[in-house]
Design goal:
By secondary structure, the protein is of the alpha+beta class. The chain has nine helices and 20 strands.
């Protein structure tokens, strides 16, 4: 029997540590729990919020509805020659899944080490870091259709992945709840060292033939050196997407700022949002109870007691200043719950 709680604090369920509450709260541990919940007409017209690890959301206010925390666990794998198929429950911590695979030498997600959040959120956001995106290893996911109470499988193609985007943020938004994710990994590693920071750290460690464990350790080291630990200071990781602009848009930016940090992105150019923000003087700046992280301007932090409105206001100021200086419009990566 599901336990629906009332007036529950969400402070410990969002990594920003914003002190808000949900009018109603329920934790889902099994697929059947979703069927039971959505068959109950009591909740048919109640505003709903699906939560995982709470690492990619900013609450501006209390949530006047039903917060549904997905806590479906379990990891299984199947090996077929050199191929490995790993399936994990949506409630698993993403980095626990990475460690599970790296420890067993299942290659493909080592570059995604230490990304905060849950497995269920990974395809929604098409998480990515250091030259690898989830879509590169994503096989399928199983999801609960809210309108019908049925379960459906979505393939890689079905998800229509883009840069930090998927169909679950587009036309399928709020229609499905992901319950498990299946990845297509390999026993034959093909390490991705595209990002200079990884190469440099491997050199520092005198590693010339890196294994996936080496890559995972190096990526984790780089992330820890740049990003704050949510258990000690509230944050949601990268607050903004790295902007992708056309080569025509990029030309005047590069002409005026030759040192602009950029990467090829097909027929477009990806800019480093952290660099843009830093050039506007925001890195390490404290504004009231909030601010930007001292080692990475892309990360907004809660220094203690910040409200969601404060953090949102700071993000708006940063967006405005970057646009005034570079003519580039930053987009928030974090979901704003108001």
């Amino acid at each position: 029997m599901l336990q629906i709680q009332e007036n529950v604090s969400l402070k410990n369920f969002n990594t920003f540590g914003i002190d808000v509450s949900a009018k109603y709260f329920v934790e889902i541990s099994h697929e059947d729990d979703l069927v039971e919940l959505f068959m109950d007409p009591q909740w048919a017209h109640t505003r709903r919020l699906i939560m995982g690890g709470g690492s990619n959301m900013l609450f501006k206010n209390d949530f006047d509805g039903l917060a549904i925390r997905i806590n479906i666990r379990g990891i299984e794998h199947r090996i077929n020659h050199e191929e490995v198929f790993v399936e994990a429950g949506a409630g698993e911590v993403w980095n626990d899944l990475v460690n599970y695979c790296v420890d067993r030498e299942y290659a493909g997600i080592e570059n995604l080490s230490l990304i905060p959040g849950s497995v269920g959120a990974s395809p929604i956001q098409n998480i990515g870091a250091y030259g690898v995106e989830l879509k590169d290893v994503f096989k399928s996911c199983r999801a609960f259709e809210i309108a019908t109470g049925e379960f459906k499988t979505f393939t890689n193609e079905d998800c229509r992945f883009g840069y930090r985007e998927s169909n679950f943020k587009g036309e399928l938004k709020d229609q499905y709840i992901i319950v498990s994710v299946k990845l297509h990994l390999s026993l034959i590693p093909n390490v991705n060292l595209k990002y200079g920071a990884i190469e440099q750290e491997l050199v520092n460690r005198n590693i010339t033939s890196p294994t996936i464990k080496d890559v995972s350790r190096v990526v984790s080291h780089i992330r820890v050196s740049k990003l704050p630990d949510p258990s000690t200071i509230g944050n949601a990781g990268s607050f903004f997407k790295n902007p992708v602009i056309s080569k025509e848009q990029f030309s005047p930016v590069q002409s005026k700022f030759p040192e602009v940090v950029n990467y090829p992105a097909g027929d477009a150019v990806k800019l480093a949002a952290g660099w843009l923000i830093e050039q506007c003087g925001w890195k390490g700046k404290v504004v009231g109870h909030t601010g930007t992280w001292k080692n990475q301007a892309l990360v907004l932090v809660n220094h203690g007691g910040a409200t969601g409105e404060e953090v949102y206001s700071l993000s708006s100021q940063i967006i405005d200043s970057v646009y005034r200086k570079f003519g580039v419009l930053l987009e928030r990566e974090v979901n704003i719950i108001s």
